[in-house]
Amino acid sequence: MDDQYFMQQALKEARKAFDDGEVPIGAVVVANNQVIGRGYNQVERLNDSTAHAEMLALTAAFNFLGSKYLMEATLYVTLEPCLMCAGALYWSKIGRIVYAAPDERHSYRRSTGQQSPFHPKTRLEQGPGGEESLQLVKTFFEQRRK
């Protein structure tokens, strides 16, 4: 199993969000080649503006491990994290973040510029699945505007 496989798992989560009428972003947390947390946007369902895919996946991973730190884990997320999620990822001390597509409008970079808000030991990478992720978001908003 590799980045492609785990990003596909995150994209499955994003499709769940899409089917539920949520902005289609999905995330999985992986440790020791095993998914230990999953999440997709549930802002509307939970009436909670903090119910982003990353936040829900992190909570599931913390609960799975019984730990507040994820230094040996990787987050796979379909869209680059926002500033709120970046803050949660900082405190998690997650080892690696792989995002499928950049988000020019809402990513953490809008507030921080090129300065990383993540833990100094966290590695950030753009990974596979970018076109599929962006197409899912684009289709979602095109349908909402009809």
Automatic annotation (TrEMBL):
Matching entries from Gene3D superfamilies are given as: Cytidine Deaminase, domain 2
Q: Which GO molecular function, any one, fits this protein according to its record?
A: zinc ion binding
Which cofactors are named for this entry? Zn(2+)
Q: Which reaction does it catalyse?
A: adenosine(34) in tRNA + H2O + H(+) = inosine(34) in tRNA + NH4(+)
- Cite the PROSITE patterns for this sequence: CYT_DCMP_DEAMINASES_1 (PS00903), CYT_DCMP_DEAMINASES_2 (PS51747)
SUPFAM superfamilies per the UniProt record, alphabetical: Cytidine deaminase-like (SSF53927)
Kindly give the InterPro entries that the UniProt entry links to this protein: APOBEC/CMP_deaminase_Zn-bd, CMP_dCMP_dom, Cytidine_deaminase-like, tRNA_aden_deaminase
Enumerate the spans annotated as CMP/dCMP-type deaminase domain. Answer: 1-111
Segments for region (Disordered) = 106-130
From its record, what is one biological process in GO terms? Answer: tRNA wobble adenosine to inosine editing
- What is annotated about its quaternary structure and interactions? Homodimer.
What name goes with this protein? Answer: tRNA-specific adenosine deaminase
Traced from the root, the source organism's taxonomic lineage reads: Bacteria, Pseudomonadati, Bacteroidota, Chitinophagia, Chitinophagales
Q: Which gene encodes it?
A: tadA
